[in-house]
Amino acid sequence: MKLLILSDLHANAEGVKAILQKETDIDAIYAAGDYVDYGPDPCGTIAWVREHQVHAVHGNHDHRVLKTWRENHFRGLPKDEKWWVHYNCELLHPEEIDWLAALPTHLCFEADGIAYLMQHQYGERYEIIESQYHFDEYWAKHYTLPMKPGQPRRMIFGHSHRQAMTVFPDGSLWLNPGSASYRRPDEPSKDAFYAVIEDGEISFRHVPYDREWLFAETVRLRPTMKEEEYHVAEFFFGWKESDGPDYPWLAFIKDHFKH
Ligand SMILES: [Fe+2]
Ligand SMILES: [Fe+2]
């Protein structure tokens, strides 16, 4: 069985389209949340996820958009008070909001004899599971399917946008496929990150993708962006490959993208 593991698409379906061009014979796609916010294409992204029958859980940004939409905190806002969440709310339709609202927090499944538990994040901020004890504790609380004795256990997380894996003493592990959209400011790669699990074998991968449309769409949607915001967009979706630690707007971006 070949599973494609995604996370943190963030209103950007261009990365996942490039991933699917590279990866063929996928049996099932799983995604660990954050389909919207921080990008210009929430509708196209949700459409892609639904069209490909992705097994999905919700993320904190899905919740944020949902809450803002339901509380109506986006209509009539002055342009200089609008941020991605407000632009996403303006674009989304009630039916897409209902889809976001129906996403579960946890998803349990089995593949090739391995038990999987998927969710967006652990803790309130960017905590990670660091010990066997905490892995077992979390598993006992959230895994709801029957298990066979000695069955291997794996968790899938998103949220940090960092591709990573931690293996515990009994062979259990958690993995994060990274973001299929954009990196944290201290990671200069612009590729779409993901993981493939084929017959139980985990492989972390990334693929370059064309961000030109995303950047053009961002500028079209938000013609009155402040200079700082323009540079954030450029950082996420721009063409520069040199946006590393010396990027002049890094401090601003770090300050505004803590979540
Ligand atoms: Fe995210
Ligand atoms: Fe998140």
Using the coordinates above, name the CATH class.
Alpha Beta
- What is the CATH-assigned architecture? 4-Layer Sandwich
**DSSP, total strands:** 10
Order of helices and strands: EHEHEHHHEEHEEEEEHHH
What's the end-to-end separation, in Å? 34 Å
Biggest sheet: strands, sense, closure?
Answer: 5 strands, mixed
- Low-confidence spans: none
Number of helices: 9
Mean pLDDT: 90
Ligand inventory: fe (ii) ion
Q: Percent helix among the residues?
A: 25-40%
Q: State which percent range the strand residues make up.
A: 15-25%
Lateral arrangement of strands in the main beta sheet = 3-2-1-9-10
Structural class designation:
alpha/beta
> What general outline do the C-alpha atoms trace?
globular
Radius of gyration: 18 Å
* CATH homologous superfamily descriptor: Metallo-dependent phosphatases
Domain module tally: 1
The name of the CATH topology is Purple Acid Phosphatase, chain A, domain 2
